[in-house]
Amino acid sequence: MSRNSAYDRHITVFSPEGRLYQVEYAFKAISNAGITSVGVRGKDCAVIVTQKKVPDKLFDPSTITHIFQITPKIGCVMTGLLPDARNQVSRARGEAAEWRYKFGYEIPADMLAKRMANINQVYTQHAAMRPLGVSMILIGYDDERGPQLFKCDPAGYFVGYHATSAGAKHQEALNHLEKKLKKKPQLSVEDTVEMAITTLSTTLSLDLKAGDVEIGIVTADDPSFKVLQESEIDEHLTRIVEKAD
Q1: Tens digit of pLDDT for each residue in 79-126?
Q2: Burial tier of 28 (Cβ tally within 10 Å: 0-12, 13-18, 19+)
Q3: Which residue from 48, 49, 46, 44 is spatially nearest to 188, judged by alpha carbons?
Q4: Cβ distance 227 to 66 under 8 Å?
Q5: Strands 213-219 and 45-51
Q6: Is residue 47 within 8 Å of residue 192, measured between CB atoms?
Q7: Cβ distance 71 to 108 under 8 Å?
Q8: CA contacts within 13 A on the Cβ side of 33
Q9: What is the pTM of this model?
């Protein structure tokens, strides 16, 4: 038997190299879901974009989504296993409601990200639970700090981003975003949405249609989280094509 055999059977047992294999497998589950998501923060807005895949022609496409609203001003895109995603969204809504009940105002995006990351960390510590195979990218608009973009992973790590990605081809998406944001451009709302869409399109090497993507956005003018309709997505796609020409 190899030295590392059986270390992947327990969430709570470190291997001799200091790794937790079950947590690493949770990251693998996110990539294996076959969905790529992108989040970009602009000067006065934050945008999340993800693929919309309908695996069966008999499914009703309007009932399939990876973008969820948590509070009036905070939304998220969940990448990975959808049942795990719904569980985590439900918990996040509960935590946000409890915060509002306790303190009398809506939870800020950074505190919600921190709370969800803390819960994820506990899942890596107790044998009775398993880490959730899902990555949460949160966006929100803060009255003091402006647009916010956070990502929480199954290991319990969270951090704020200018732009980030999760899912199947996240590394290619991150490389593309790094190049685009190297000069630290001041992105308007349109530029931010278009950068998120072009990043997804370039990464997947696809010409995206309005029905292939979902987009969530918060802006300074309208800090409430909203999901764009297909007609609005179509406008952005048309603008991208016109710019390319």
Answers
A1: 999 999 999 999 999 999 999 999 999 999 999 999 999 999 999 888
A2: exposed
A3: 44
A4: no
A5: antiparallel
A6: yes
A7: no
A8: 30
A9: 0.92
